[in-house]
Design brief:
- This protein is 40% helix and 18% strand.
- With 351 residues, it is α/β, with parallel strands linked by helices.
- It is globular and about 55 Å long.
Length: 351
């Protein structure tokens, strides 16, 4: 009798334990998905939901430039990170270096929600295959302290105004050369001859004495404004969002016809140890919740119809997601054939 009771108890206990295990997330316990990203793309405010649903933690390293991102991702033959949030200036470099794998779109339930012009975009597709998944985009903007700069600027010329000398900051990034090329009226800011680069150098040398500091991250830039060191900046919308949340008097301007920007894509390392989890993360970011999370934190524009539904038509219109007109206007970052010369020029300006 006791033998039967003990047996029944053990069977019941086993069934309870089995039920508890089956209720856990499908992802194996202890999974860690590593990524190198732009600031804000794995913020805990939305990443926690992914971790709770999958049981897989997202561990991110922020980068201050595409060059830093590429160098770190390449370390260890692409085994250090599972994912990278690559902008259009390094997607081709990553592909040619053999560091990323083609995307199997059938593994993404939300892929069809991506705006059709962004599916298999020329910034992340090579040899007819998608190697990246577009999820966010935006312009490089002109930020200013509304109490120190009384009139809202209409062009980048304000950076050269003598009254703001020593109070200017621009990104510590060779891609800033493309912005200067636009200021000089170059039609294609990513296809610059030696003569074009010489003109850009002269313009940067003209601006150099007014530059207080070259900023590397959005957080650093926000601190430069809040400490009173700068009043004008070539910036990302993320810093505008951060300063608004801090009740700082800041304005943002998009000078028409003189904008560069970036279309960012998730790319998966060819040597990722967590490929399935990487696909789950990408699909989560394409979802309404993931898109809204990225937009709320960064102030950038989303890339899916699910994102439009999540933020509503008014917010989507503010972010130019209703007709993508701003995206068409922006000269998006792309590969530069003579990039070594760009880096050399930039180092000369920085020194």
């Amino acid at each position: 009798m006791w033998h039967r009771l003990i047996t029944a108890f053990l069977i019941g206990l086993l069934g309870l334990t089995s039920g508890m295990l089956s209720a856990q997330p499908a992802q194996a316990a202890g999974c860690t998905l590593t990524a190198i990203v732009w600031e804000g793309y794995t913020d805990a405010s939305f990443a926690q939901k992914f971790e709770q649903e999958t049981g897989c933690a997202i561990k991110a390293t922020y980068a201050g430039s595409s060059d830093e991102m590429f160098a770190k991702f390449r370390t260890g033959g692409g085994r250090t990170y599972d994912l990278i949030s690559a902008s259009g200036d390094i997607t081709e470099r990553l592909y040619k270096a053999g560091l990323v794998r083609p995307i199997d779109t059938s593994k993404l339930e939300n892929y069809d929600s991506i705006f059709s012009p962004f599916q298999k975009g020329d910034w992340n597709s090579f040899d007819g295959k998608p190697y990246g998944v577009t999820f966010a985009w935006g312009p490089n903007v002109l930020l200013y302290n509304t109490e120190k700069v009384a009139t809202s600027p209409t062009s980048w010329d304000v950076l050269f105004d003598p009254q703001y000398a020593g109070q200017i900051t621009i990104p510590d990034n060779p891609m800033t050369i493309a912005d200067v090329a636009l200021w000089l009226g170059k039609a294609d800011p990513y296809d610059l001859t030696d003569a074009d680069l010489a003109e850009v150098k002269d313009k940067l040398l003209e601006l150099r004495p007014s530059i207080r500091k070259f900023w590397a991250t959005a957080g650093e830039l926000a601190n430069l404004f809040q400490s009173g060191e700068v009043v004008l900046a070539h910036a990302w919308p993320l810093t505008y969002t951060q300063l608004i949340e801090a009740d700082y008097p800041v304005g943002s301007v998009n000078p028409k016809g003189e904008l560069t920007g970036w279309t960012d894509s998730w790319m998966i390392s060819k040597n990722s140890r967590n490929v399935d989890a990487a696909y789950k993360w990408i699909d989560f970011i394409l979802s309404g919740e993931g898109q809204k999370g990225v937009m709320d934190v960064t102030g950038y524009s989303g890339a899916t119809e699910l994102g439009v539904e999540a933020v509503g038509p008014e917010r989507a219109k503010e972010l130019f997601m209703d007709d993508l007109s701003l995206h068409e206007e922006i000269k998006m970052w792309q590969s530069v054939q003579n990039y070594d010369k760009w880096v050399q020029l930039w180092n000369e300006i920085r020194s």
